[in-house]
Amino acid sequence: MKNHEYRNGQLIQTNKKFSALTKKQKEHIGRDLRERYIKMMKYPGVKLPSKKRDQILDEVYEIIEEKGIWIPFGEVKKYYYSKISSFIRSHRKQHENLNQ
Fold it and tell me: What per-residue confidence (pLDDT) applies to 11?
């Protein structure tokens, strides 16, 4: 059990991947990240500055910990940065549909 350790009385897998989460957990994390990212955007199609992106990531990771979902911070960060372009694309499409 080299990839496990006890934290707060629970046995935790230290090398857990994002794909190992349940569908509901993945949807919850993805929804929180997308909503917060889009809410912070001022202009459709423009990436947020790195400081704001990191702030969103920290806020969502705190929520994940409060819910009792254990996933390494690096896995959430990797997922988040891979989804930023899709957040921007979806926000741009919503903005275009509203203007038409």
Answer: 62
